[in-house]
Amino acid sequence: MQWKGAIMYKEILYSVVDYVATITFNRPDRLNAWTPQMEAEVRAALSAATADDNTRAIVITGAGRGFCAGYDMSLLIPQQSDDDGVDLAGSSDNFNQIFSYLLAVPKPIFMAINGPIAGFALCFGVFGDFRYMAEGAKLTTSFARRGLIAEAGVSWMLPRLIGTMNALDLLCSARVIESREAERLGLVRTLPAENFLATVQGIARELVTTASPRSIAVIKRQIYLSHFQSLAEACALADKEMKAASTSEDYKEGVAHFVEKRAPNFTGR
To answer: How many alpha carbons fall within 13 Å on the CB side of residue 11?
Structure first.
């Protein structure tokens, strides 16, 4: 168990070093298979990272040789449904679905996929902002080969990342692919397996220390809101945010460090 402030984590690890929070799935004996406990702890850790001024980026990875093998099959119980159709109540709340809440986290989220990722875990992974995968690691959607369907919003997000045909291929075939093919599809960027996590943490740290954390948060919000906006709405939001940015501390620092030819010291304000 790990205590962090008032929170006790049983199935994840959480640490913050040099502006980067690292959340580690910590069930290595089960290839970090997903559980309700793990989900609750991940949400708590992301809330803690969001509230922490000393955290500017979030890296999520797995302990041992895997990222996450998907939902723990030992916990699954076949469900009988009497629903006649899909209940669309509340479906307009696009950033408060099972994993879409990740899109609303105002700090960049890096998925450091160090080993196998499958099923439910892949649904989680596609909602990260950046996905890095260790050379040789494998992924699969799994669902169709278990008699299941594309769940947890993956049918919405995956085509936006890799296109409709490629998404249908991965979802309907449930075939296993390696990191290099995933990279060719545009789903991940591949890095050497050696020092993989440290490399991803370094990439995250460089991003949030050389660019304004305030700018990153606003740009992330602009990008994901654009999926639900017209061009006119996106332009109107950009005009509003540009006016706000021009009076911010980070804008003043952005100009100052450029003129003075020195490293920036952004505050995120």
So the answer is: 19
In a shared domain, residues 97 and 127: yes
pLDDT at 240 over 90: yes
Q: Which domain holds residue 171?
A: 2-73+93-208
99 with 164, same domain? yes
- Smallest CA-to-CA distance from 61 within 2, 123, 111 is with 111
**Domain identity same for 236 and 170:** no
pLDDT tier for residue 87 given thresholds of 50, 70 and 90: very low
**Residues 157, 127 contacting (CB under 8 angstroms):** yes
What is the predicted pLDDT for the residue at 225? 93
Weakest mean pLDDT among 25-34, 74-83, 93-102 = 74-83
Look up the CATH number of the domain holding residue 197: 3.90.226.10
Report the predicted TM-score, pTM, of the whole model to 2 decimal places: 0.88
Other C-beta atoms within 10 Å of 253: how many?
A: 17
